[in-house]
Structure formats: C-alpha cells, structure tokens
Amino acid sequence: MAKVPRNFRLLEELEKGEKGIGDGSCSYGLEDSDDIMMSNWNGTIIGPGHTVHENRIYSLKITCGDRYPDAAPKVQFLSRVNLPFVSPDDGTVKPTLLPVLATWSSRSSLETVLVEIRKEMASPSNRKLPQPPEGSMF
Amino acid sequence: MSLPKASLQRPRIIKETERLVADPAPGITAAPHDDNLRYFDVTIQGPDGSPFQQGIFKLELFLPEEYPMAPPKVRFLTKIYHPNIDKLGRICLDILKDKWSPALQIRTVLLSVQALLSAPNPDDPLAPDVARHYKENEKDAQRVSREWTQQYAS
C-alpha cells in the first residue's frame, strides 16, 4: 500500500474541507492561505442540538506537526467551553482524555477529530454541563 | 496464472527512477525518499528567457497507489509568481488532471512543468490575481515574477 506523504495528505484534507464536509456542523480550513507547510488550521464546531451547546459556534485551532498523520494533531479550543477533556486554563484538548487522539490512527483526520469532539459534547455526561457565557474566548 | 498487480507496477517505478537518476533531463533533478520510493524531492531550473531564469525551484512529487493509471501529484515548495500555480504550490496543468495518460512518465510530467514556466497561460488561471496582472500588464507581472525568483528561488 502506497504511503501518502504528509503534505499530499494535508492537500487532500484541505480540498475536502473546501468542498464542505457532512451536514456543515463541523468545518476547517487553513489559518493562513499561503501557509505552504499547511501546519496551522482553524476548525469550527456548531454545538449539537438539544444540548447546552445548541446554536453556539465554537472556534478551535489545530496544529499539524511534521509527523502528521502518523502523529496526532494538537487541538485547542479558542472559544471558552466546559468539557472534561479541555483544559480550563487555555482550552487545550488533553489528548489522553479524548479517545480519537488517545488511540490516534493515521486513518483519522482533521474531520474525524472535529466530529468526535462534537459527539462528546452531546454525550449523556457532557450535554448538560454548565457553560461559560456564549461567545467568550480563552 | 496472474501476477499480483503490485509486482507489475513496482518495476515501472524503479525503472523510471533509475533513468531519472542516471540520465536526468536538463535542468531537472528528482530523487526518491529513502523511506518512500513513491515520494520524490524535485528541483526544476527556471528556463532561460523566462522571468524564472536562474531560479532553482523545489517541488515534491508523489506517485499514488493507482499510478500509472492515475497521474502523479506534484506541488511547488518554492514560492512562485505564476498564473497557473497557486499560493500552496498547486499546479494547473492538463496532463496532471484529465489529459493524463499512462504512457506519460515522471520525466514527461516534470518537463511539462518546466515548459509551463516558459509559457504561462493566464486564460486558465489557478491564481486569479496573478493571471489578471499578467493579462493587464504582462511586463510588470514578469517583473514581479523575476523579483520573486530572486527572493525565493536562488
């Protein structure tokens, strides 16, 4: 099986993201459109319905290092949020506490990270957690 | 008895690689990564008489699983001011898309990319602002291409 190098893998993900993924509840793109190494990404999650997150828009920063996709990306919330796997100090997603990062596989992607975080927001233990004021940032 | 597909494809990639190294095309180098024989570091020298003259441009090339039924993927790593190459180094070239044929090779692809530097095509742009500049004031656009070549490709 041909191993797709980091940069061509990220180009594929970029093109997929530009077309729009799923139902639009998660999206991502390059932070800087001429970042030739494609390291810094913005992600957006629309809070899942019937939870405390409903109608909220969460911004995240995702960083893909040199070893991506063999190594997981770093993920950080820019919007304030109260979730057990997010540091209350600076919004960093703790990789050991989020299964998609803890058991990272190179088949996972920026899309799966955002989709999995959104699923966690809607889980029975997280859906009713008290949240900081809407729109506040770290 | 039929051979597995991979064992038929591998010799083609190895043959192409050997020839690229032993008998390189003028102004072009291509060397595979030690840990991924489908992934190449490429350099292309800007053609004489073009605004990219004397520039050495770095590119990367990847042969996908489907190669040679699917085209190689190629991208500039050096910044370049050209109407058919975007900010991320992606290239608008027909043989890399719908005009690909398995009869083409890595060598022909890289020669075509080199030829594209001599013949920018602002009517089929990938970088709309650069294409507009080339259409409205070709001399001034070429000046910027030369400046970028000096700044980023030397």
TrEMBL record, chain A:
Residues 5-138 form the UBC core domain. SMART domains: UBCc. The keyword rRNA-binding does not apply. GO terms for biological process: DNA damage tolerance. Keywords: Ubl conjugation pathway. This is UBC-like protein. It comes from Mycena belliarum.
UniProtKB/TrEMBL annotation, chain B:
Residues 8-154 form the UBC core domain. The keyword ATP-binding applies. CDD domains: UBCc_UBE2N. The active site is at residue 92. One of its GO terms (molecular function) is ubiquitin conjugating enzyme activity. InterPro entries: UBC, UBQ-conjugating_AS, UBQ-conjugating_enzyme/RWD. Belongs to the ubiquitin-conjugating enzyme family. This is E2 ubiquitin-conjugating enzyme. The lineage of its organism: Eukaryota, Fungi, Dikarya, Basidiomycota, Agaricomycotina.
